[in-house]
Amino acid sequence: MSMNGAEALLKTMIDAGVEVCFANPGTSEMQLVAAIDKIPGMRPILGLFEGVVTGAADGYGRMADKPAATLLHLGSGYSNGMANLHNAKRAFSPIVNIIGEHAVDHIPLDAPLTSDIEGHASLHTNWLRTCQSADEMPKDGADAVAAAHAGRITNLIVPANYAWTESQGAVPPVAPETRPRVSDDSIAQAAEALKKGQECCLFLGGRALREEGLVLARRIEQATGAKIVCEVFPARIQRGRGRVSVERLPYLGEFAAEVLKDVKHMVVLGTKAPVSFFAYPGKPSVLTPEDCQIHSVATAQDDQLDALQRLADSLGAPELEMPEDPALPAIPGKEEAFTAEAVGAVVANYLPENAIVSDEANTSGIFSYAMYEGAAPHDWLTLTGGAIGQGLPVAVGAAVACPERKVINLQADGSAMYTNQALWTMAREQLDVVTVIYNNSSYAILNLELMRVGVENPGERAKSMLDLSNPSLDWVKIAEGQGVTASRATNVEEFEAQFKAAVEGKGPRLIEVVL
Amino acid sequence: MSMNGAEALLKTMIDAGVEVCFANPGTSEMQLVAAIDKIPGMRPILGLFEGVVTGAADGYGRMADKPAATLLHLGSGYSNGMANLHNAKRAFSPIVNIIGEHAVDHIPLDAPLTSDIEGHASLHTNWLRTCQSADEMPKDGADAVAAAHAGRITNLIVPANYAWTESQGAVPPVAPETRPRVSDDSIAQAAEALKKGQECCLFLGGRALREEGLVLARRIEQATGAKIVCEVFPARIQRGRGRVSVERLPYLGEFAAEVLKDVKHMVVLGTKAPVSFFAYPGKPSVLTPEDCQIHSVATAQDDQLDALQRLADSLGAPELEMPEDPALPAIPGKEEAFTAEAVGAVVANYLPENAIVSDEANTSGIFSYAMYEGAAPHDWLTLTGGAIGQGLPVAVGAAVACPERKVINLQADGSAMYTNQALWTMAREQLDVVTVIYNNSSYAILNLELMRVGVENPGERAKSMLDLSNPSLDWVKIAEGQGVTASRATNVEEFEAQFKAAVEGKGPRLIEVVL
């Protein structure tokens, strides 16, 4: 079969195992749209804004452990997806972005949509390639897929004229890049530090937070007395009943520093040593004590599970003794206040087996996280890069990757507005996602931050910039406007009934909790 | 009064005439929020997504002819605003972006939100500065305002620690950059070309499309017989009854080339010579005939009105003879089909005196533009850079700049979704904007483009990527969910009644027309 560049690229990517393409195409990507149409094997999923597309690819990558493709329209389409690519980069998610470009002869004419696409695309990756011919295009795609597997974003820029030109056809897959194995020296040094017991903290992130990694970590803890702490914003952590429960470092630097204050050695695996999210006048940004020695064993792109296994082996760590599971939180009674914590208690109690939680509840979720230790086993996904507007799209991607699992999206109102278009994709694809919107009508986190940077007694003009009331958002209408069944809960009883019905049912559902 | 860097910067900008700050701040901008609170003179307007913030600044700049400030949160906040900055750059709108950055000691720690902000910000401007101290910060602001006045975006990156450090205080305004005067040689050459009469086209954009510029252009046409044509996507054109009406070059390259096929000389003023929006297999991208000579007189940043005046003088152009105004289109009767053109006819008939039209109707508006030549005098603003999601935010900014004028936003459904959060800002600020959503449940333009790039008989997977039905968006709910009064029209009669009521009233209103 004769193929143009777009078809050869697409066929190659399908052969390399890419099954889903989150897309928001424009004119310069029409050949790729046509190729998806013609060649079976790629499921196209439309997002009505590119932040949905890239965030969904992030969620998919976290859950599928392999890349989805995205289809983005030139530099402007890419830029709309950048905030969630920033988050995905920090999550080390595998993603292959296919970015359409004008035909090469058209670029120097500086048509209205012309921009420096390489300049855009280089901000999120060191794997960036612009196709140079229709014949080379499929190999570029194979390389992009292979490189993405190692936990990174790959950006392939496709000039339209190569997409529509006859090519030599698809090429075989390239072997996925493997994760580097940590050196024996690093393992030995880390083991020495861990032997110091309580003076040492094993600080975990990345793949180390999968069930298997946490079992190894707990065995190391039991062998040495070193304390396990998990990074503030894990891309994916496996937790709940029957699993190893680890302390998560608090978001607020003051509390985080308190957790780490006696640590003299920190063994870091799957992440970096912790620093505060923001800087504050007169406060330290580094969260470990000044005299703490950092031993970085494995980055988020190294083979972290292998490193943990070798550490456990070298320490002769005994088999795991699991403690009893923590209790589930009590659901507050009718008369009690309807708070974010009450919502957390209900969700934890009714969380379905093997659920996936996409958590962008921010301030509203901060004190509920621990409630879920005794809930049914689940995967918890967080806002890795701090660019808000990630929770809804990540839920979309997780639901596409795992159609048999229920996805629960815990979502702050301010953040939800950023990529509210994800609701439409949930409706169109009938994704099994229950979104819980914590509507507190404010950027609550910023009221806190305003104080933390030293602003006391803010006046009306300042408060107006942190306030989402006047008018309050009506999330039931916003969801229904995009085809998602929605309801509102104003007390615990209503919320419990609505959430129970939502998890017992199937398909997209939104519950607005008014706090 | 002692001032920190943020306060000194803000006071300086207010003294330099900046009155409005479209904002979506985060923690790193809290000192600037506090400064806006403390120092009178700057109106903060919150957008719930940065694309609203930057698009509003664009609309404000087009109508006020001076910059608004924006307040953006780090690289990720900036990237959310990039698509509309791309459009604003193509509109040569004056904008001063204040972009928060981490404290300088915090940057090397690579906290989650750290990114290459200069790399982001350099994509839209050659005026980019990162503040180097609290003392220099106000002068940086004064320079940014002065440079923006010449019709460009200026990007000022403000590290948080300089914002909170004591500074020497505000500095006086810097004289706005003036627009370069075109050389006498250029004028003389253009005059020679224009003297060739019908063989010559005077191709206009930018400031030349203001009422005064068009009068000069028409006088030149009357003196020489050269034909006036306006660029495809003007940032702002003044038109309607009693004004000079000019032909607008069609969007579709085939039609544009037809308009220009006999042109041997093109005098270009306030824009560049026309090229097609996209490239298509086997079709030329340059829209002027091969033997056409291009005479570029003035760019969109030069002093275009001065150039036109000197051209008119050198050609001894007589005073304007205005033809009769074109008739208003007839409003179709009850029995006739409810089409985009019927909507255009109603809007044209009821357009209030001195209205501002923010046009992002795309496919639905393409055949209605000419209907407004006989409407009440108005300003028409278009999608200059092709990055969709501009119409609603530009309407916000125009309404803030001109509170006494009615703003009509003609809006395609697909594009409206990109920055639907603008509706909330319209509600909060009670802006006098009537939004008309053309709901055709598709990216209609892309169905056309799919054919134009040579894809025939697209199948289900392709069509699903261009289709916005299943589910259809309910714009009444989406608007009401954000506090905007809304209604739906399914025939001409309903639309006429709703539009009439909307323009007679005051405040934000949305009408969904179902086509």
Can you put this structure into words, describing what you see?
2 copies of one chain form a homodimer. Chain A is an alpha/beta fold and 515 residues long. The first copy, chain A, has 3 domains: 3-167, Rossmann fold, CATH 3.40.50.970; 184-314, Rossmann fold; 340-514, Rossmann fold (3-Layer(aba) Sandwich). Chain A has 20 helices and 20 strands. In chain A, the strands form 4 sheets. In chain A, strands 11-16-15-17-18-20-19 form a 7-stranded mixed β-sheet, with helices on both faces. Chain A has a 6-stranded parallel β-sheet with strand order 3-2-4-5-7-6, with helices on both faces. A 5-stranded parallel β-sheet of chain A has the order 12-10-9-13-14. In chain A, strand 6 (128-130), helix 7 and strand 7 form a beta-alpha-beta unit. In chain A, helix 1 packs parallel to helix 7 (137-148), helix 3 (50-64) runs parallel beside helix 5 and helix 3 packs across helix 14 (391-401). The model of chain A has no long low-confidence stretch (mean pLDDT 96). The interface between A and B is large, with 98 and 98 residues.
Annotation keywords:
Acetolactate synthase-1/2/3 large subunit (chains A, B); seven-stranded mixed β-sheet; 515 residues; flavin adenine dinucleotide binding (chains A, B); Rossmann fold; 19% strand; homodimer
Write the layout of secondary structure elements.
Two copies of one chain form a homodimer.
Chain A: E1 3-4, H1 5-15, E2 20-24, H2 30-38, E3 43-46, H3 50-64, E4 68-73, H4 74-80, H5 82-91, E5 95-101, H6 117-121, E6 128-130, H7 137-148, E7 153-159, H8 160-164, E8 166-167, H9 184-194, E9 200-204, H10 211-224, E10 227-230, E11 237-239, E12 247-248, H11 253-259, E13 265-269, E14 293-298, H12 304-314, H13 340-350, E15 355-360, E16 378-382, H14 391-401, E17 407-412, H15 413-418, H16 422-428, E18 433-439, H17 444-452, H18 460-464, H19 475-480, E19 485-489, H20 492-504, E20 509-514
